[in-house]
Amino acid sequence: MLFNNPEALDRNSHKTPSSLRDIVLGGQDGIVNTLGVLLGIAIASNDLRIIFAGGLAAAFAESVSMAAVAYTSTVAQHSLYEGELAKERRHIKEIPEKEREEIREFFRQKGFSGNLLEDAVKTVTAREEIWLKEMMKFEFALEPIGKKKAVISSAVVGLAAIIGSLLPLIPFLFVPISNISIIVAIWASLVVSAIALFIIGVYKAQTTIGDWKKSGLEMAAIGTLSALVGFFIGYLFKTPAVS
């Protein structure tokens, strides 16, 4: 049984993957932020060179910034975990009965009672490292995060952000190639971005729990409306047409 095997309990500790969060965070922010800047510049200047310069600057600045934030926030979580771990380690040594009672109360709330409750408490508290890990999860909902995970998270967020950031620029590539107007490229950029946001929303729902249509439409609507803020600000500074 699991409660008679501390090693099995430790191996079966659930670790929530962060890849979904990183992909959604990077992809959504990359699309929305770059699209907003791009639409503002496009409607204000109507100059393809400035549109590409501003769009690319926003895309790469956003991606580097998002990657850096992902790294520093993950490192901060690691520091928080280490700080609380040291505090719990001290408590186990100084007030073990109080800490043991906290474990007992957790299992009691889960429906354990009698001998089963005491066996669970005894198993968890038999080894200090397992006891510490369970206390961190029960009391603080914290899992250990290493520097390697911070680097991976940063890379995933940065990559998702750069891919998302470049998508709104694609329609503008066809302005000189197919001789379409800037206005047509603006609308095409909105459509491409909305579709990409919808796909991210669907991926989020299928990876977790939820209605994929609702999640996709919600992501597309929120992202598109946010980006349109940039469009309307750019419209206020629109360069008058030369007659």
TrEMBL record:
UniProt GO molecular function: manganese ion transmembrane transporter activity
Compartment(s) where it occurs, according to its Swiss-Prot or TrEMBL record: Endomembrane system
Signal peptide per UniProt: none
GO annotation, cellular component aspect: endomembrane system
Keywords, comma-separated and alphabetical: Membrane, Transmembrane, Transmembrane helix
One GO term of the biological process aspect: intracellular manganese ion homeostasis
Keyword Ribosomal protein (UniProt): no
Predominant location: membrane
InterPro entries reported for this sequence: Ccc1_fam
UniProt keyword Zinc-finger, yes or no: no
Membrane-spanning parts: 50-71, 150-174, 180-203, 215-237
The organism's place on the tree of life at top rank: Bacteria
Topological relation to the membrane, as annotated: Multi-pass membrane protein
Protein name, per record: Iron transporter
Organism for this UniProt entry: Candidatus Woykebacteria bacterium RBG_13_40_15
